[in-house]
Amino acid sequence: MEGPFIRIEDTGEVVPLRPEITTVGRGRGVDIRLTDPSVSRLHAEFVRRGPYLYVVDLGLSRNGTRVNGRPIARRVLDDGDVVSFGAARGRIGGVPREDFTPEVELRRAAAPELTRREVDVLTSLCRPALSDEAFVAPATAREIADDLVVTEAAVKQHLLRLYQKFRIPEGTNRRTRLANEVVALGLVRPTPVVPPQRASGATAEQPSAAGRRAS
User: Under CATH, to which class is 5-93 assigned?
Assistant: First the structure.
């Protein structure tokens, strides 16, 4: 089998991972459906970005996601890693190590383990830079705080820890350097933009003021 896959421990089933995103859970509509009651309906997802394979806990699961026994929010995977979704487990295979250059290996090693909140902060930080507009600066601490409905002081504490984890030295444009590193590592991805409805369509669906008074 070419490409990354997961071998489910209970059944021995080998499931290839999609080129972009593979969802995992107990509910209908997921790509990998696990029947163990400890698995949430939408539990986690595998993300492939270039030579990297990640597993991401979606924050909706009661029992969490583990890699080789360690709880994770997001983690780069390697051949032979054991991923647990609650009590259900599977082993990763088919990660093409021969495609990794020494530079890529160094970047893989540089990707630290992140908590769920740190992933949220990074996603909010990088959201402007992942838009279609050119020369957009990453979000400020105030904007991240508003986005996540937390205090600005809490965001600054998270950013300080993230600077340390990603080894971003002190100096100017520190947030920009952090955002560039995170995007380069593929740790965040663009959020699909929903096109706004045309004004004419919205007007047609809403009753007129006279109609509302009549009702």
Answer: mainly beta
Q: Residue 10's CB: how many other CB atoms inside 10 A?
A: 12
* DSSP state for residue 149 in the 8-state scheme: T
Q: How far apart are CA 6 and CA 196, in angstroms?
A: 39
What is this structure's pTM? 0.54
Q: Whole-angstrom Cα distance, residue 69 to residue 199?
A: 52
Task: Give me the DSSP letters along 99-126.
Answer: G--HHHHHHHHH---B-HHHHHHHHHHH
> Could you report the per-residue pLDDT of 58-71, keeping only the tens digit for each?
877 788 899 998 88
- The CATH code of domain 102-185 reads 1.10.10.10
The vertex-187 CA angle with 2 and 195, nearest 5°, equals 95
